[in-house]
Amino acid sequence: MLGFVHGNPEATAYFMVSYASVAVFAAFAAGVLLSSLAEAVPGSPKLAPALAAILALSATSQLIRSSKASSLANFTDTDVFDDGLRRALPARAVVLAHNPQTIFRFWGGEAEEANRPDVTMVPLPLLTYPKLVDRFVRNEPELKPLLRSYVLDGRLSAAELQSLAALRPVFVEMDVRVDREMIDLIVPEQLYHRVLTADTTDTDEASAMRTHAGLWEDIYERLAKPIETHTETQLLWRHYADSLYFAAVGDTNAGLRTVAAGLALNPHAKELLALRQALKEATPGERIDVTPFMVR
Question: Among the residues of the chain, which ranges form H helices?
Fold first, then answer.
């Protein structure tokens, strides 16, 4: 009845009590049927226990059949993403995250390693949780103007972003909620986009584009093969978000590169196909209105 945040990796965990309840009721129902059977055929006292043992063994066979698919013992893809999401960020960075997977992976990684206590990750979809904004402001007062404007307006203020970027490195996770005004203030860095400061030059921006391409080559080299389904979903979304950015700033070649990377994962993604067509029809360097491609 409550539902859950779309894309939340803990969605299944929310229903674990329900799953356990179903299992208990199923076991109870089996017990009632076996008891009735024992009473119906009193001359075969071993029949009901034998059927109970068969049911138990059948349940065990399901565990054996699914253990390999459900085990994360050898799953290392999250570690590949952790470098760009957390470990390699500059000192005292502020990360404004939109994606629930990014948020929970950041918290999970820090719970395991605790090697970036200087980095502040602000979970934008969760800021309406009671007292969360108050905690950020209390611990880091320089965040107050930005978070206050976000809570009041429901969007990140470009002016407040640049003001904060003058004090600390600020990163925004690219998303459909990143509007055109913000896109003009950011360049790709690591797996986020860094908010520009006043002294950023065109050379800096060009270097960021080249570094971005090299970063993704390294990620694909390190990912397990074949690519796992949930990893593929993450890759597809990140390539799409990057494509929106490059199309909006007029970097046609980079836009076509990221669109191609996404279509390699899902050749039938209609948004990517439409964006590829728009990029091919555009004059090189032309900024594209990406509003029609903002999937919500």
Answer: 11-14, 16-40, 47-70, 77-82, 100-113, 132-139, 144-153, 158-165, 180-183, 202-222, 229-249, 252-265, 270-281
